[in-house]
Amino acid sequence: MDDYYIISCQQINHRGGGFLIDIRFRDDGYWLRRQEREDIVDWELFYRLRLDERQPLTSRQVPVATLAEIVAGLQQVTVPALPAVGGGFDGTDFTLAIQAGLNRAVYTWWLDVPAGWQPIAAAWQALVALSQD
Question: Rg (Cα) of the chain, in Å, rounded?
């Protein structure tokens, strides 16, 4: 895979806790880092999809072929630009962000996946599964 990608996903439970997964190229390949947060103190940092280097995290290398498969699937996705309105007070939201060079797309949904966004949610689930292997 010759192109440079950063792929991040997160889950935030608004009653407290969540996790953030970040995959990016490092010196010798693509690395997945996952950070669990029981008490999300810095919501702004978390919403920016940035790991807090002061907090514990797990890290491991990701096979390029595995990441290439996820990227190839995302390249084929066509989703509505405007999702249905969603939200609430207590619950969970999900985010998938893809950066290719200087271009970036961010998809965030509350609880239920918006109509037409199922391929985005499938990529989100693939990243979570990859972080749990």
Answer: 15
Q: Which of 10, 9, 15, 12 is nearest to 89 (CA)?
A: 15
**Which positions ≥6 away from 2 have C-beta within 8 Å?**
none
pLDDT tens-digit map of 36-45: 877 665 555 5
What type of residue is 120? Answer: I
Report if pTM > 0.70.
Answer: yes
Residue listed under structure tokens 């970036």: 104
User: Can you give the CATH number for the domain in which 124 is found?
Assistant: 3.30.1560.10
CA dihedral 129, 102, 92, 20 (to 10 degrees): 50
User: Which residues form the domain of 15?
Assistant: 5-132
